[in-house]
Write a structure and sequence with these properties.
There is one protein chain. The protein is of the alpha/beta class. It has two domains: 5-123, Rossmann fold (3-Layer(aba) Sandwich), CATH 3.40.50.720; 128-296 and 320-345, Dihydrodipicolinate Reductase, domain 2. It is built from ten helices and 17 strands. The strands form three sheets. A nine-stranded mixed β-sheet has the order 16-15-14-13-7-12-11-8-17. It has a six-stranded parallel β-sheet with strand order 3-2-1-4-5-6, sandwiched between helices. Helix 1 crosses helix 9 (299-311). The longest helix is centred in the C-terminal third of the chain and has 20 residues, at 321-340. The chain starts with a strand and ends with a strand. Bound molecules: nicotinamide-adenine-dinucleotide. Nicotinamide-adenine-dinucleotide is lined by residues 10-16, 36-39, 42, 74-77, 79, 83, 97-98, 124, 126, 165.
């Protein structure tokens, strides 16, 4: 076998350990050589736990000493931009956690830097890598659904404000449920639809419960420092005449504790995720065309695999830098439309 590619991780938190490092350690063609965290103790503990030879508090020192080929950026959202640009400047292919950045301008700069460097920049929008999503995309391309004119994407929690990390801090996180969970269903929906061009966005955000309550399904938070929205309702209008409605919440008085789903309504058939189900109506009776019993829960590793295989030259698609930019642009437009109380034209 040819020489192993060297991998480093920037940001030694939970997603870095459970997903990125866990996946890289399964690949015989990779060698996990270094971890960086601005808190030196976290980098040291992470390296010790996973048997990684080098730990750093300073990323540039890591690049100089270890010269990795691949870098995973798993720092908090606010630092994705600078960490990705630094990795690209040091000649690395990059897998960056979602959301791509804090603004579309940053995401565009990251995309352009990757193009100039001739390196792969992928984002971990892993729901599109579930087998369910992939199968559905194939059926959409094959025309099974016909013209899809209404899409409903939902990432809802009844009382699921994260009680850890910086998820309730708008300055550090960039937003609430839209940035954290809604963005996954938005990406999965846009992927299945083939990223149709968006014409206009309207949206409403609410902050009704996060500032009043203090505990829920995912522990406790401080309502006094809760600065993000707790629910978003948005409509995207496409140039092709279709619409996508997105609903997402950390807290909302609904019956199910959580919903992660996308529904596609075509003029020939309908479909839903997750799991994948494709159906039709025949004289008022529901007819199933395809149904998976259980959603693919290997999607996170599938996303990592697509990235590494792509870097290794395999013809597999990734959640690429241009699509990351488009998603970031939609997130910004949704917040802008909600803040202004008017629709926002995209192009
Ligand atoms: N794809 C997914 O489903 C998914 C799931 C969880 C988290 N995430 C994303 O992963 C990222 C990290 O989330 P997490 O839950 O692992 O957070 P975490 O708080 O567990 O870990 C973040 C780590 O980054 C370190 N850090 C802070 N600033 C840094 C910097 N400038 N450079 C390097 N390291 C720095 C922190 O000390 C911490 O150890 C976030 O962007 C989050 O949105 C994505």
């Amino acid at each position: 076998m040819s020489e192993k590619l060297k991998v480093a991780i920037v940001g030694a938190g939970q997603v870095a350990e459970k997903v990125h490092a866990a996946y890289y350690l399964t690949r015989p063609d990779l060698e996990l050589v270094a971890v960086v965290d601005t808190t030196a103790e976290r980098a040291n503990d992470f390296a010790a736990r996973l048997g990684i030879p080098h730990a750093f508090a300073d990323a540039q020192a890591m690049y100089q000493q270890c010269q990795p080929d691949i870098v995973s950026v798993c720092s908090p959202n606010r630092f994705h931009h600078q960490n990705v640009l630094q990795a690209l400047a040091n000649g690395c292919h990059v897998m960056c956690e979602k959301p791509p950045a804090m603004t579309p301008e940053q995401a565009a700069e990251m995309r352009d830097a990757a193009r100039r460097a001739g390196k792969v920049l992928a984002y971990d929008f892993h729901h599109r890598f579930a087998l369910d999503t992939q199968l559905l995309r194939e059926q959409v391309i094959a025309g099974t659904l016909g013209e899809i004119y209404v899409t409903n994407a939902k990432a809802l929690r009844r009382c699921g404000v994260p009680g850890w990390g910086v998820f309730t801090n708008k300055e550090l996180q960039g937003g609430g449920p839209l940035i954290d969970i809604g963005i996954h269903m938005l990406d999965a929906a846009m992927y299945v639809l083939g990223f149709p061009a968006v014409r206009r966005v309207t949206a409403h955000t609410f902050q009704k419960l996060g500032t009043r309550k203090h505990s829920g399904q995912f522990g406790e938070w401080d309502p006094k420092t809760y600065t993000v929205e707790d629910a978003v309702f948005a409509t995207l209008e496409f140039h092709n005449g279709g619409i996508l409605r997105l609903e997402t919440s950390f807290a909302l008085n609904i019956v199910p504790q959580s919903v992660m789903s996308v529904e596609f309504c075509g003029d020939n058939a309908g479909a839903s995720l997750f799991p994948a189900h494709i159906y039709q109506d025949e004289g008022g009776e529901l007819v199933t065309l395809m149904q998976r019993e259980k959603a693919d829960d290997n999607r996170h590793f599938n996303s990592m695999k697509a990235f590494v295989d792509h870097v290794q030259g395999a013809p597999v698609s990734i959640a690429d830098a241009e699509q990351g930019y488009l998603i970031q642009q939609l997130v910004a437009a949704i917040y802008q439309a909600a803040e202004q109380g008017t629709s926002v034209d995209i192009c």
